[in-house]
Structures are given as structure tokens and as C-alpha cells.
# Entry
Amino acid sequence: MAIHYAVYDTPIGDVTILSQGKYLTGLMFGAVDPIGAVNEETVPLYDAIMSINQFFHCERLGYNIPLNFLNATEFEKKVYEYVMTIPYAETRTYQDVAEAIGEPNAEKQVMNVLGKNPLPLFVPCHRVVAKTGNLGVYVGGIELKRKIINFEKAVFSKDSMEPNPTISRD
# Structure
């Protein structure tokens, strides 16, 4: 099955979005031409672009796009699923996530998983920080993580939004 991609300009810079079949499979910061991928809009890419656009224009309160984490372990899926429940403009610590998924000694593993999150923004790992108050890690870099956190806090009230993505178990 072919991998498709689209590059979209956002208020935080270009993002490259990947899809395979009916699923969204990746998001990278910057304009990227993925090897072997077809630059052709698909339904999941269109939906992703619309959701990102609406998010940054304060019109969209959650995502409803099927996500597929290619080659993710069950542990990684548990981390991603929990992180998707963190409300807008709120943060949790890596330790909070580890405890919430029933792995209280896995703080560093949680940080490693989120540091390679294939679908940032859709799996809002920018909302997870170190218990010391440091921002921790982010696939797009710490300054971008700070920018997104500050954007959410400035624009959205925590009572007005509930993310609603779905994960494929295929």
C-alpha cells in the first residue's frame, strides 16, 4: 500500500503529513520529501490538514482521524493512548503518564517513547513535561514545544475542548 504525503504551512512552520490507506501515519516538522512516498492528497491527509488549520484558527476542538502507529509496541500504544486524553492547555509529567498506564517505574521509557512520537499534535506529547518543570524532550525541539504549549494556554480554556482521536489496532 502506497504512502502519501502533503506539506502544509502552519503558524508554527511547515509540517509534512503522511498517510497510508485510510490512516494517518506520521507528522514531521518542516517540509520533507519522504523517499518513496507519493505527493498526493488522500482523505486522511485532507482531514489532517483541515484539523490542523482549524486547531490554529481556534475552530476545532479535537481530532477524529484514524491513526496508525506503524510498528509500535503495546507499551508505546498505551503511552500514546493516555497522552491523547490530556486536555488542551494542561500538562502532565512523564511520571504521571507512567503511573497512569500502570508502569510506575517507566518514566524514562515514557520519555523515550514520546521523544520519537510519529504523530505530534495528534498525540499531544507537547503536554508532557519533566517533574522538575523542565520541558523534557520533543520531536520538533524544545522551543517548538514551548511555543505550542504557550499557544494552547493563551487560546483555549481547558473546559472547552476534548480531544477525540482514534487509534487503529491493525
